[in-house]
Amino acid sequence: MRNFIDIVLLVTWVWLWLSAKAHSQPLPLPRGQQVPCFFIFGDSLVDNGNNNGILTLARANYRPYGIDFPQGTTGRFTNGRTYVDALAQLLGFRNYIPPYARTRGTAILRGANFASGASGIRDETGSNLGAHTSMNEQVTNFGNAVLQMRRFFRRDVNALNSYLSKCIFYSGLGSNDYLNNYFMPDFYSTSSDYAPKAFAAVLLQDYARQLTQLYTLGARKVIVTGVGQIGCIPYQLARFRGNSSRCNEKINNAIILFNTGLRQLVDHFNGGQLPGSKFVYLDSYKSSQDSYQNGASYGFEVIDKGCCGVGKNNGQITCLPLQQPCQDRRKYLFWDAFHPTEMANIFLANATYSGDSLSSFTYPINIQSIGNDMIEVDLVYMKMVA
């Protein structure tokens, strides 16, 4: 029965597509929606269930994860919405972007989340936790999705590329390349193979290639995020014994090298290296530093420990199955040893979506601006996925 319905939809779409081509009449997007689709790449900060079915310790498909999420426990590594969930709502999407592992048929035209907990820019990153989908594999999966979408566009590559150029792409990698690679010398040799500056350089070289592959596959509006101030997360605060700082500044200083290079990479892409592209740099380091230093002004009463976890700062062991979390999650900056709470994610989404040029955590423009130049979409999209 489902196959029959799919065939009917496909035949209907072909007729509509031909009609749209003949009349060349674009229609507006669904009310309030700025872009036709949203594709997401990253790690556990934005994974929404891709790791549920694989053998890994990096999974969150158990309570109390998702305790405040409308759909319950889904595999999101927080108590409620992730940053990209909140951003999708600000972009006007009526439904959350689904994990690629569960995206079927024409639903791919709305977008998909390819992110995987523990993943990094380098393939070996996160292997200490088990299976995961690295950025290279996420890009490959998107390539397969593009082949699938071509069928819905009668293999008209130009039409598909025009469609994808109107979509927003989000890519947030790098945290695990430091936490679960470079600063884990008992498991990885990278810290002895590379000085911090050299490691940042090789990461950026790989990342530039991966982002260029996304561009080749059709991405034009891309948000790339820097690595947050991970020397100050509960996991590090529970372990670090510094003299002049509570945070592990050795890690933070290494992160700054990567982030500086990533922002420069965005300038290169926008400056003509990838013609027609619009890249936005999301300064996660600045935003996390601001939240840590000025948390009280944003309503966060607890900024140095997880809402759910074990040991010092609730950061020595992450949130366990069926563990009782803190009562008022809105007052906590961190949900567990590594990940922000839903409130922190919502705060960042609002700040990066429409922040002004002086106070925004985005560069060179905010996210709302990158989507505003696309106010119409072909009839095909309206009929297929509205």
UniProtKB/TrEMBL annotation:
Residues 1-24 form the signal peptide. Pfam families: Lipase_GDSL (PF00657). GO terms for biological process: lipid catabolic process. One of its GO terms (molecular function) is hydrolase activity, acting on ester bonds. CDD domains: SGNH_plant_lipase_like. InterPro entries: GDSL, GDSL_esterase/lipase, SGNH_hydro_sf, SGNH_plant_lipase-like. Belongs to the 'GDSL' lipolytic enzyme family. This is GDSL esterase/lipase.
